[in-house]
Amino acid sequence: MKWTQIPLGPLQTNCYVVSNGQDCIIFDPGEEPQKIIQYIQTKNLKPLAILLTHAHFDHIGALDAIREHYGIPAYIHEKEAKWLLDPALNGSQNWFPENPMRMKPADHILANEQELTIGGFTFEVFETPDIHQGVFRIM
């Protein structure tokens, strides 16, 4: 298993690509979808899903572009699912009032702490209120 940190956007928020062989999972695609796509193409990876630790604007900016480019699902905790649709909740209204972010709804809503398997990846999902809603531990 390998992971790569990719700082993105004006805040240089970390996106992570976790790979196992050619399959990969993308965490928090904050901005610059072309940078994420270029990395994935360069490494000849096949994305299986996008996991969001939380839905602040700097973690979701490239969500729809990446999801549509690869035709993959997005996962988020139920407490922040509405944030994808609401610029006031995701914070983009304050940072980018001329172009607030409204993403498509997540494909999968995580409600409980659980074990999550996507392809050959298995994660333990933890709710971490007051820090971020979802934390994933790779098993």
**What's the CATH C level?**
Alpha Beta
Which secondary-structure class do the elements indicate? alpha/beta
Biggest sheet: strands side by side, in what order?
1-2-3-4-5-6
Helix content: 10-25%
Q: Can you summarize the main beta sheet?
A: 6 strands, mixed
- Termini distance? 10 Å
Mean pLDDT: 91
In sequence order, what are the helices and strands, one letter per element?
A: EEEHEHHEHHEEEE
Shape: globular
CATH architecture: 4-Layer Sandwich
CATH fold category name: Metallo-beta-lactamase, Chain A
Number of strands: 9
Rg (C-alpha, Å):
14 Å
Structure report:
By secondary structure, the chain is an alpha/beta fold. Helix content is 22%, strand content 38%. The chain has a 6-stranded mixed sheet, covered by helices on one side. The chain has a 3-stranded antiparallel sheet with strand order 7-8-9, with no helix packed on it. Strand 3, helix 1 (33-42) and strand 4 form a beta-alpha-beta unit. 36% of the residues are buried. The mean pLDDT is 91.
Characteristics:
alpha/beta; Metallo-beta-lactamase, Chain A; 6-stranded mixed sheet; 5 helices; 22% helix; 38% strand; globular
Outline:
Helix content is 22%, strand content 38%.
Tell me the layout of helices and strands.
Blueprint: E1 2-8, E2 13-20, E3 23-27, H1 33-42, E4 46-51, H2 57-60, H3 63-70, E5 74-77, H4 87-90, H5 92-95, E6 108-110, E7 114-118, E8 121-128, E9 132-138
Parallel strand pairs: 3-4, 4-5, 5-6
Antiparallel strand pairs: 1-2, 2-3, 7-8, 8-9
